[in-house]
Amino acid sequence: MPSAFVYRAVVVLLWALAAYDSVACRGLFWDGSSFLANIIESGTFHDFYPARAHVGWLTQIPVLLAIKVGVTDTRLLAMIQSAALFALPAGLYNLALARVRDDGVLLATVMTIIAVVYLPTSFFIIGEYNATFAALTAAMAVALTADDGRSWRDGATLCALGILCIASYEAMIYLGPLMAAAILWRVARQGTDGGVRLLGAIAALAFLGGAVVSGATVAEYWRHPHFVLVRGAVLDFWQNLQFVIPLVGLAIFALLSLARPSWLKARGPTVVICLVALLLAATPWFRRFDPEAMLFPPAQYVARTAAGGLLAALLVGMWIYVAWRRGPPALLANLRQPAVARRLATATFVVLLCAAIPDIALTRLWTGYLDYFRGLVVGRTGLVSARELPMGVWPQRLFSQEWTYPALSAILRSAPGQAIVLIDKDFNNPPFDPRCGTVPRLKGFAWRG
User: Fold this and answer.
1) pLDDT 10s digits, 376-407
2) What whole-number distance in Å separates Cα of residue 134 and Cα of residue 124?
3) Is residue 425 part of a domain?
4) Which domain holds residue 311?
5) DSSP-assigned letter for residue 446
6) pLDDT of 148 strictly over 80
């Protein structure tokens, strides 16, 4: 299958998923409903966590502009919020794909990142890591494919991505120095144009700045109860079937390729990758055989840390593949053969298609959950205790988060006086905004249509 076709098909798939998820208001999942309610209430940015502010500002601007021009339909605002959250990583991955589309191995690697890092962790799209991981993928793609003919544009692009990543996510503590080193390597290999070198140095400094901000944040909150829980859950990524199945397949592929590079010339890699893809596509039906073997959106939040480590490994692999030209090992020499690269890109495309199946399945279940929750809100009045509701049964348990019930209720109301679902706990939990977990008023706003 030609790389040009694969590239176009992946771009179409990426944006089609973003559009579908935006219409489904998936940005309301978990913290997203509280974020939107707080933006509406305050009329300004939900700037609850300065260390991730740049991603927050960029994705919240469309909602604030919509409110400023008079939009009061919370359903439309939820769609706008979702569209902004999905469009940013989709656009950045689109950039990465466009830059590597002429190299089958690099194209396969970026598709692997989308299939194994992005899709299995993006149900929690409100998480800033989605944009950060995409920005780093785009930055590495730009750095590795830069040439003298577009050096100034590439330098400006890397500077913009670096500025975004300065305040983006804690994973920059290790991804920032990696990206800075790759940029400096590229600058050293390009011409002596002083302006291009200056742009490269500024970009590298920005990515290093992201590492400094992340390091300071980790040090400040190291003993905070929430961060203790986050650290304790690092190895729980196995709970995420969407992540662990392709991860195991990727590990098998890597080990066999390292142990016997010549197998890349045969059909073995394609067979292994396609078998993993079929298993991944079947995950929505695992629950029919074992009720606990299910797709579980909260597990996507848990797997984000492991996904960051995997991303770092894949980015390093891209760098080694491009940089090691003199006397390369057999593995790299075989990967550079056109037939091998083409088969690898095609097989990875199949994995990406199959990775979209559980993503769509979860979105369909999410739509049903929103309809169920909205039925509770519009069908009752006053305060409703969540303890009286079957929120812990299938499929409600997939999407329920107790402290966000009030915010989601307020967003889904069509008229004042309709129900607010809540639970009798205190969810004020610094460093989160003290408003989280409280009952928003959203006066003058309502869910319409």
Assistant:
1) 999 998 888 888 889 888 889 999 988 899 99
2) 15
3) no
4) 103-369
5) B
6) no
Name which of 42, 26, 16 is nearest 436 in CA terms. 42
| 79-106 average pLDDT score | 97
pLDDT, one tens digit per residue, over 322-333 is 999 888 999 999
Q: Cis bond leading into 431, ω under 30°? A: yes
Asked if 112 and 307 count as a contact pair (C-beta separation under 8 A), the reply is: no
317 contacts: CB under 8 Å, gap ≥ 6? 109
Going from the C-alpha of 91 to that of each of 8, 270, 421, the distances in angstroms are 14, 29, 36
How many structural domains comprise the chain? 1
Task: State residue 294's pLDDT score.
Answer: 85
Q: Beta partners for 384?
A: 421
For the whole model, what pTM was predicted? Answer: 0.94
CA angle (26, 27, 30) in 5-degree steps: 95
Beta bridge partners of residue 421, listed in sequence order: 384
- Residue 299 belongs to some domain of the structure: yes
The H or E element spanning position 385 is strand 383-385
Quick check: 146 pLDDT over 90? no
Distances (CA, A) of 140 to 36, 212, 213, 316: 32, 20, 20, 9
Amino acid at 164: L
pLDDT top residue among 235 and 36: 36
Q: Do residues 21 and 89 make contact, with C-beta atoms less than 8 angstroms apart?
A: no
Report if residue 110 sits inside a domain. Answer: yes
Task: Tally the residues of the chain.
Answer: 449
In this predicted structure, the answer to whether residue 190 has a pLDDT above a threshold of 80 is no
Separation of alpha carbons 222 and 235, rounded Å = 18
Single-letter amino acid, residue 432: F
The secondary element (H helix, E strand) that includes residue 421 is strand 420-422
Residue 207 forms part of a structural domain = yes
